[in-house]
Write a structure and sequence with these properties.
Elements (H helix, E strand, L loop, with lengths): L16 E4 L5 H11 L5 E5 L2 E10 L16 H11 L6 E9 L5 E4 L5 E9 L3 E7 L17 E5 L4 E4 L1 H5 L1 E5 L6 E9 L1
Antiparallel strand pairs: 1-9, 2-3, 3-4, 4-11, 5-10, 6-9, 6-11, 7-8, 7-10
């Protein structure tokens, strides 16, 4: 497949994880970043904790309440990722733009259960993405061993990923603190 690296270039989680470099050009990235510069980001609170990243939701938020409609500048990106995923563009019911300032991480998590396919694009700088098998909270009792990542890859600037099937539901992921300002655009389909 054109644009897809060989399996030996990345240490990908099994079962439906796909990765592509250069899904958009430098010019397309610059246009998206110029528009993102005018977006009002908000602090993100999860379980009473304010994250170090800031966010902007479009379509739906995590609680399925409507937010601002998809802005026009996201539609070509959504269409390209939908074609890659083999779904209609409208199947992506939510878009989330994350702003990671230097030192911002995202902790271990599995995307909310109401979502199915997760597609993301990295902008402005690269980051590492780590994976480990998901364990329900009941199985993480005190005294259980600390778990470590089983898979890791670098999400290059202008790259994209798709998480489907086992990689989406049987693994959790996190991004360690980033070294430089980074934006990600994440699209999700509903289950």
């Amino acid at each position: 497949m054109a644009g897809s690296p060989s399996l030996f270039e990345h240490h990908l989680p099994p079962g439906g994880f796909h990765y592509r470099d250069n899904v958009i050009t430098n010019v397309e990235e610059r246009a998206v970043l110029d528009t993102i510069a005018h977006i009002a980001f908000a602090d993100f609170e999860m379980r009473g904790v304010i994250a170090r990243r800031r966010v902007a939701f479009f379509g739906q938020s995590y609680d399925r309440s409507p937010t601002a409609p998809f802005p026009a500048f996201l539609l070509p990106l959504r269409a390209a990722l939908a074609e890659w995923a083999g779904v209609d563009a409208d199947a992506f019911a939510m878009a989330l733009i994350n702003e990671y300032r230097p030192g911002s991480p995202i902790g271990w998590h599995r995307d909310a259960p109401q979502y199915d396919i997760v597609a993301g694009v990295s902008l402005l700088s690269a980051c590492r993405m780590k994976f480990r098998p998901y364990r329900p909270s009941a199985s993480t009792a005190v005294g259980s061993r600390r778990r470590s990542a089983t898979h890791e890859l670098v999400l290059s600037r202008r790259s994209a990923y798709l998480m489907t099937q086992e990689s989406r539901h049987a693994f959790e992921h996190h991004i360690p603190p980033v070294a430089a300002l980074r934006y990600s655009v994440t699209f999700r389909t509903l289950r």
